[in-house]
Amino acid sequence: MLQNVASSLGMTYKCPVQELEFSLDCRRICQTCGKGSRKREDFTNLSLDLCAETTTDKLLENYLKPTQLEYNCTCKGQVSTMSAMFSTLPNILVLHLKRYRYTRDYRLEKVHDGTSIDKDLVLSQKTLRLVSVWSGSSLTSEIMQSLDITSLKAEVRTMT
Ligand SMILES: [Zn+2]
């Protein structure tokens, strides 16, 4: 419907969610035989575990770093390594910082650790330049309307 309205006005409509879409290349490698598999997964945001005083790029690196998991390989190996890297980047990267975690006795506790949000979000392969950052526990429709979406664009450039 929005496409039709836009086209009747001589304009084109682009769904705003497309600005948020990106893909991760997820790889599993067997620790015994070295063989593995790859899968491309699509996202519109990432939920990052919050840890002691750190920066957003460290939280993101932590999310993407290789982790071990149990996996029954055809070679009878049972441990594989999983890792992920960006295969495409969004125009706007939404990072959700998980402010709550479970204690050992399964109670929820709020994490009060601070996080620095650097202007440049540097990953091993690419740099995302954050032009503006919005953070908060909830967005009301009034706040949503006052947000200038153009100011939230991230500039993507390749590191040299
Ligand atoms: Zn194997």
TrEMBL record:
<dbReference type="GO" id="GO:0005829">
    <property type="term" value="C:cytosol"/>
</dbReference>
<dbReference type="GO" id="GO:0000082">
    <property type="term" value="P:G1/S transition of mitotic cell cycle"/>
</dbReference>
<dbReference type="GO" id="GO:0005634">
    <property type="term" value="C:nucleus"/>
</dbReference>
<dbReference type="GO" id="GO:0004843">
    <property type="term" value="F:cysteine-type deubiquitinase activity"/>
</dbReference>
<protein>
    <recommendedName>
        <fullName>USP domain-containing protein</fullName>
    </recommendedName>
</protein>
<dbReference type="InterPro" id="IPR038765">
    <property type="entry name" value="Papain-like_cys_pep_sf"/>
</dbReference>
<dbReference type="Pfam" id="PF00443">
    <property type="entry name" value="UCH"/>
</dbReference>
<dbReference type="InterPro" id="IPR028889">
    <property type="entry name" value="USP"/>
</dbReference>
<dbReference type="InterPro" id="IPR001394">
    <property type="entry name" value="Peptidase_C19_UCH"/>
</dbReference>
<feature type="domain" description="USP">
    <location>
        <begin position="1"/>
        <end position="160"/>
    </location>
</feature>
<dbReference type="GO" id="GO:0016579">
    <property type="term" value="P:protein deubiquitination"/>
</dbReference>
<dbReference type="InterPro" id="IPR050164">
    <property type="entry name" value="Peptidase_C19"/>
</dbReference>
